[in-house]
Design goal:
94 residues; alpha+beta; four-stranded mixed sheet; 2 helices; globular
Length: 94
């Protein structure tokens, strides 16, 4: 079975293929609008990700967050588990 990648958007969880996840991150990093129901992301809704998964919560992501996640993914092939709700900008910038 191919490895899946998980994201949370609002209160919904999605499972994506590796290529779909990469495409989603690339689109987000270039500020392109995306829709998970688009076939190019190979995404499907799930009730809850597996316990070992590190889903990222993209609900309030901006371009910078997608870029950071994309860089990490390209280097490691893994997700960070980043959740914007837990993120504190030490410079209190926008």
């Amino acid at each position: 079975m191919n490895r899946r990648f998980y994201i949370q958007q609002c209160s919904s969880y999605w499972s994506l293929s590796k290529q779909g996840y990469l495409k989603l991150l690339q689109d987000g990093a270039t500020a392109q609008k995306w829709e998970l129901s688009n076939i190019k992301y190979e995404a499907r809704t799930i009730k809850k990700p597996p316990p070992q998964a590190k889903p990222i919560n993209v609900t309030d992501f901006n371009t910078e967050h997608y870029q950071l996640e994309l860089e990490h993914f390209l280097k490691t092939g893994h997700q960070t588990g980043f959740n914007i709700d837990d993120y504190i900008d030490i410079f209190f910038g926008e």
